[in-house]
Request: fold
Amino acid sequence: MTRPSSVPPPVTAVLDASSRWLPARLGEVEELLREAISGHGDTLGEDAAATLQAGGKRLRPMLVLLCAGPEGGAEVVRAAAAIELVHMATLVHDDVLDDAPLRRGLPTVAATSGRERAVATGDLLFSRAFDLLADAGDARSVALLADASVALARGELAQRRDAFDPGVSAERYFERCRLKTARLFECACLLGRDQAGLREFGAGIGLAFQLLDDVLDVSGPPERTGKARGTDLLDGTITLPMIEAAGSDPSIREVDLHALDSSSAEALCDRIEATGALERVRAQALLLVGEAKQALERASFGSEQRQLLSLVADGVVQRYS
Amino acid sequence: MTRPSSVPPPVTAVLDASSRWLPARLGEVEELLREAISGHGDTLGEDAAATLQAGGKRLRPMLVLLCAGPEGGAEVVRAAAAIELVHMATLVHDDVLDDAPLRRGLPTVAATSGRERAVATGDLLFSRAFDLLADAGDARSVALLADASVALARGELAQRRDAFDPGVSAERYFERCRLKTARLFECACLLGRDQAGLREFGAGIGLAFQLLDDVLDVSGPPERTGKARGTDLLDGTITLPMIEAAGSDPSIREVDLHALDSSSAEALCDRIEATGALERVRAQALLLVGEAKQALERASFGSEQRQLLSLVADGVVQRYS
Reply:
């Protein structure tokens, strides 16, 4: 397998530690993704292909493969590709929703081809995911992925509904993150293997992933995140760093998010950071990752597999340290 | 079952002719649709519920039920609800794409709740469709519906790609309609029963349905269609009436669709109508319906079922006569 040049260090660590079987399996996933996206006879899939080429960490496919272990067969590779297709679909739709110009430092489908094509491209990626699993008659995986997809859409709707509401509670925020992010990580683990502890492991690192993503939106720097600081705030999305910060400095809650521009959004990021909220949210994320790794102990599989999954969990944190 | 007040006459004809079993079965479909859309604990599904309440002809569920026949069980009712959920998802997303203010004479989700929520609402409806089938372990239906969904998204992308291109051929138009509309009608029939002739029947009436829909966009009247004349033209969508009209009056091809406003769009509709193109497209649709009914003869089921399906085929035409 040619390793994508954009692979971040923690993922590389997992690949190096598992050179016996994981890289080849990930290569098969990439192959399936390419087939699922092209093969439409003409250039219909060009927006989808751009999304594929933009890369990404392939964290969810890696979780599927690692949970399944070295004995996982073709059905595991298919499930890994399918979950990444759903993830890509949500990214493309999110960019329509957020009107985002950049994703991973590259122009979004919505920005280059218009919202119209981006909605349809997301639908295509989504349909392809189910097509891939259904053609292989993999009913269990279809059920898991459909369930997670419902959660994703509900999470997205909840986020829209909460937008610009300064009264959003931490509890509500966590519920949203569970739906929007954690459920798909959980699904990835269960697609790999139905085993005690894996649900908690996936949900835990997924939640941590979202918390740290929300920290990054405030902390930047843009050179590393590929997007401007305070993008969520400009979009009216109130995340844990802001909720935590308002606990220390209630005047933060009074900022009119509707009136923000990019420079006042940066200033608000500075105010949030000054309360120490980012450290507190990071600490919560680390706690979640620690608990997730403990949940792994309940799963009965080889020490190599447990070690690799721990590396993925660490990778979620390290990416942001 | 309480019959929705908006049920159009041809559908009523089918219901009356099949009072023995069809209305009760359709009632079960409505019940499943309600369950699939609500039951999210809070008002998350309110946009989706509005889409449900806006009604519609439930043509696709009716095809599923009729093809399955009176002996069809719970799995047929589920498949009927699932295909309607996918159809509703595409309507919600289409309205985002088209920026449409009205659908069936009522405000669209995109218009009342914003594009953002409309994209997520469509995703929710879509996920629910697969969730419904997958939970019941109905792998065959999942495969059929996933396949049709891929076609739908490809058709939508093709339409976006062809937008504002005056050189679009009739062949290209038909290919688009097959993907965007006919495949889902075909899928409805196959969800009901895997039998010779049903694929052609579904595809034929689906194609006719789209042709007549495109005639209606030009002919109006808005009081009946619930949207302004020339909505497709304003959106840059070149359909068979315009392609046919340009065959008689090549100057029609030179109209700059980018420069249209609602009154010049109406004037263009008048010019298209004046060429006799609408009659020619209607005649093609009638031919397709006739062929579809012939394909029914190859299916081996009771005369009542064949008669009811013929009524549906006639209904596709009558709605527009």
About this structure: The longest helix of chain B spans residues 109-135.
